Each structure stands twice: as C-alpha cells, then as structure tokens.
Amino acid sequence: MPKSHRAGKKSESAEAASITAVSKEDLLAALAEHKNSLLADLNTSLNRIDGKLDCLQQSVDSHDSRLTSLEDNAESVDGRLEKLEACYLKVLTENEKLRTKVTDLEGRSRRSNVRLVGLPESIEGVQPTNFFAQLLQEVFGRDLFPSLPELDRAHRSLAPKPKPGDRPRPVMVCFHRFQQKELIMREARVRKTLVYQGHTFRLYEDYPSEVVTQRKVYKAVMSSLYELGLKPALLYPAKLRITQTNGTRKLFTSVDEAERYVEEVNKSV
C-alpha cells in the first residue's frame, strides 16, 4: 500500500476520534443542561403545587371553622326551637282552654235568649220589647202566659237592614226569667210552626257560633236515627242522647260514636 494512502487513513481515524470525543462532551453537557432545566422546572412546579396546597389548606381550615360555627349555631337554633315548640304547645293548650271557657261564658250569657226568625222588618214599631211580649202572649195564648212575659230587651240582629224583598233579620229576645224562656221553647217544639198575623216564624235557641257549628255536624246522623224509629235529642253544647226502643238511653259525645252506633243498628235490623 502506498505511504500516501496509509497517511490518509491515519488522518481520518484521528479526525473521527476527535469528533467522537467532542460529541461525547457536548452530549454530556447537553444532558447536564437538560437535567438542570428539568430540575428547575420540577422545582418551579413543586413550588407552585406547594403554594396551591397551602391555599387549599387555608381554605379547608376556613371551611372547617365555618362548619364548626354553623354546627354550633344549628345546635343553638335546635335548642331554641325545642323551647319554642314546648311554649307553643303550652300556649295552644291554654288557648284552647280559654276558648272553651269563653264559649261557655258566652253560652251562659245567652241562655235566656231566643231567636225569632221570619217576621217582617219593622213590624215591631218603635217599642220592640213591648211589641214582642204582646206577640208571644197572643201566639201562645193566655193559658200559657196569663200576663205578658217579662222581657229584658228585644231587638233585631245587628246586621245591616235588608232591602225590601230580602230576608228579614232575626229578632233577639231576652227573657227576664229563664223558666219562661224554657216554657216557650218547649211549646214551640210541640207546635213546630208559629203564625202571627199571617206571617210564619220559628223560634230557635241563641247559641254561640262555635256551638252552632258543633251541633250542625249531628244533623245527618239524627235524620238516620229518626228513620230507625229512635228518639235523638241534642243536649247542650253538642252531646247526642238517644232513647232506644226499650226505653234505655245512650249518650254520645262525638258524631263518630253516633255514626258507629247507627251502623251497628242497621246491621242488626
């Protein structure tokens, strides 16, 4: 082989070795630089995560504090609510007792009153008390009232005066003697229909509105009892007494009890 050719090969080998050495150094440097860059990025990311975690921890601590406060407030509200419920039940019970007492007192204050329904407006003139005393004596006769019944007062209900042709207002009559009032009510139940100068009218007890509502619910069951041949009587304030065919009596304090009794009687018939 010529010397020039061998010299060329040696030169190429040295150049290749030099390139290889340079490339390794550059590669190591590049890798080190990349590693440092990655570490820097990682540290930056970790620092950001640490910051966010700190914020989250602060937020969790804040929420925990608020939840604790809300729980304390809820417990306080529950305690106050329990006390209010207890007070409400107590007030409700006392109010019901007071309503019952007021209704009873109102009923007692009206026990001598009678309602006359059906008489034309202004028929009584300017002296209604005297007029209705004479009317009752005339309608029920002197056998029942040898003298005029004693009335404390008599007047129309306090509703506005109706227009001509409308239903007249009922008349409120207060007897001075309760016995006379009871006597006239018993006679009215016997006669059922009363007439004065061609005008038909009726007499009713003057009950408080609460008592009227309580008594009204017995209307249907009383009709059923009449159909069965029994003798129902509605006692004050709202108690149903039944006289059975054998003469014995039963007392019901609610319409449900009376309805169950009617069902039992219907089954036995």
- CATH third-level topology of the largest domain: Alpha-Beta Plaits
Please work out how many helical segments DSSP would assign: 6
The first-level CATH class name of the largest domain:
Alpha Beta
Low-confidence stretches: none
Average pLDDT confidence is 89
CATH superfamily of the largest domain: L1 transposable element, RRM domain
Number of domains: 3
Protein name: L1 transposable element RRM domain-containing protein
Keywords: Coiled coil
Organism: Knipowitschia caucasica
Family: Belongs to the transposase 22 family.
Strand and helix map with partners:
Layout: H1 3-109, E1 113-117, H2 128-140, E2 151-156, E3 171-175, H3 178-191, E4 194-196, E5 199-205, H4 209-216, H5 219-227, E6 231-235, E7 239-243, E8 249-252, H6 255-268
Antiparallel strand pairs: 1-3, 1-5, 2-3, 4-5, 6-7, 7-8
Summarize the structure.
With 269 residues, the protein is α+β, with helices and mostly antiparallel strands. Helix content is 61%, strand content 15%. The protein has a five-stranded antiparallel sheet, with helices on one face. Strands 6-7-8 form a three-stranded antiparallel sheet.
Describe the structure.
The chain is of the alpha+beta class and 269 residues long. It has 3 domains: 41 residues; 96 residues, Alpha-Beta Plaits; 57 residues, L1 transposable element, C-terminal domain (Rec A Protein, domain 2, 2-Layer Sandwich). It is 61% helix and 15% strand. The protein contains 6 helices and 8 strands; from the N terminus they run αβαββαββααβββα. The strands form 2 sheets. Strands 2-3-1-5-4 form a 5-stranded antiparallel beta sheet, with helices on one face. The chain is elongated. The termini are far apart. The mean pLDDT is 89.
